[in-house]
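Changelog note: in this version the structure field was regenerated for every chain. One regenerated record is shown below for reference.
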Amino acid sequence: MLVVFKHLKPQRAVFFSILALPLQIFRLSFSGGNQLVQSMSLVSLNEAEKVYIIHGVEENFRCDGRSRQDYRPLELEMDIVSNANGSARLRLANSDILVCVKVEIDTPLPEAPKDGKVEYFVDCSANATPAFEGRGGEHLAAELSRFLSLAHGPVFNLSKLCIVPGQSCWKLFVDVLILECGGNLFDAVSLAAKAALCNTSLPNIVGTYEDGQNIDLQISDDPFDTKALDASDLPVLVSMCKIGNSYVADPTIEEEICGAGCIVVSVTPKGNVTAVLKKGAGSFMPDTLNEIIMSGSHIGILLNKALNETLIQDMSSNVCKQQYGFLK
């Protein structure tokens, strides 16, 4: 399997061998059929085109030259929104995703006094596809934000966001904007969200003042006096689309239309599966489902490793890095 990450100007190809790691107990979720994909893409295929795609998948040679387990090249830009605490822009073929993270001080929940808060918001730009005009993208946005929260929940260490137990904590707002839709949105959104969270910096608390039972916090005025948020253990999503008797990774819009169903697997860097989402009207036999989840876990390890290496490279060159972001 080939995973390519292009970070800013240079392009770097990363090759890995597939590792077999055990799975942990995960949560299974279901969504609607392929009508959402067809209405979202507004792409129509005749029967000859569908047969061509299906036969190509059976021969392990897809329309764009990839094998069934290959991903398209990804482009990643970091820290491109100056007024956000963390940001990232990821482009997967024609899918363009922008993620910004803002932080503020809030009160912890009564049932979790030592934990912080994270909220996910997904917005589908009307320019991404004509199907998003008006309220066309609301269902997809709600499904993406809900599954991101479900996938990150078992892994995200919210105790690191606590400031004063029971009184104050950091609250993260993860805002996802879909600028262009080119298929496989779940994978692209998860990769961009993880990159933005790894790019997030929390302001340092320089002092506290007690006034009875109330505690006032003094935050550093220096914008560079921050600490990085550790989000390296967060999972990424891997979509496995069933086409004919085979399944493919990173499906295009045309392949999603030809697919009978899709399984989205949330995979941590260690290969653990935290959540599974089933999309489409098709059904899966238990053995096939287990095989798809295992294959998705192996691919997820490669994606996490490639992403983490790219983020480490970005951090090491952050001092002398020239900004290329389109919002700069």
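Spot check on this record: Residues 202 and 227 are 5 Å apart (CA to CA). The chain is about 25% helix and 35% strand.
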